[in-house]
Amino acid sequence: MLDRQNTVARTVLDHSECASVFVRNRIDYCCQGDVSIETACKKKGLDTEALLGELARAIAERRGGEELDRRTMPTHELVGHIVSTHHDYLRKAMPFLQGLASKVSRVHGEHNPKLRELEAIVHELAETLSPHLDAEESTLFPALLSPAPDRNVVTRELAEMFTEHREVGQLLDRMRAATEDYSVPDWGCNSYRTLFKELERLEDDVLRHVHLENHVLMPRFVAA
């Protein structure tokens, strides 16, 4: 049985399938995940028992075998996983989504002005993420994987990473609001539907990516 005093971040570490439940209820399990489930519910005006029920159902309905616990991975393997799974995905996805967001905004922006706002958010997200990924791969990750890590460099780079994660989280919140939780109107064309589907996929990937870095990778090098 889930403990309402367990932190949101720890709950996702123990049960990754709970991430989608938190996202659906607009609970940040990444940069603000160090609060209890009960506290998170109070902040959002949610019924704690109802959310615990959602989480329990998500755990019970999980399909397939047990997921690999990333907390057990050596640091070099964890970093490799982050780069190959999340960084590589973002580098491929962002240019495509920028182009698609511009197209949908151009065609349907008069009908739904929020699409113009969404286009700007997607471009800002890409401009924020690209240098962030580069900095992690060129500076942060080599510092973490060094045989003798420089504590000053590690602390500085991790602090910068965490700050940038907060900025990305705010952009994702704005993106979800602009899409009205990725709701496609009846008149939405295939491009419109594809854009919203892929943006929702992007949000899920970025949140899992940030969660790994904030709550698995970073605690190995700095105190909470």
Summarize the structure.
This protein is mainly alpha-helical and 224 residues long.
Can you summarize the main beta sheet? none
**What are the low-pLDDT stretches, counting only 5+ consecutive residues below 50?**
none
Question: Helices and strands, in N-to-C order?
Answer: HHHHHHHH
Which percent range fits the helix content?
Answer: 55-70%
Q: Quick check: average pLDDT?
A: 93
Instruction: Note the beta-strand portion.
Output: under 5%
Number of contiguous helices? 8
How many angstroms separate the termini?
26 Å
Count of structural domains: 2
Structural class: mainly alpha
Shape by Cα distribution: globular
Would you count the extended β strands for me? 0
Radius of gyration: 18 Å
Could you explain the architecture of this structure?
- It is a single chain.
- The chain is an all-alpha fold and 224 residues long.
- The protein has 2 domains: 53 residues, no CATH class; 149 residues.
- Helices cover 70% and strands 0% of the residues.
- The chain has 8 helices and no strands.
- Helix 5 runs antiparallel to helix 8 and helix 7 packs antiparallel against helix 8.
- The longest helix has 34 residues.
- The radius of gyration is 18 Å and the shape is globular.
- The two termini are 26 Å apart.
- The model has no long low-confidence stretch (mean pLDDT 93).
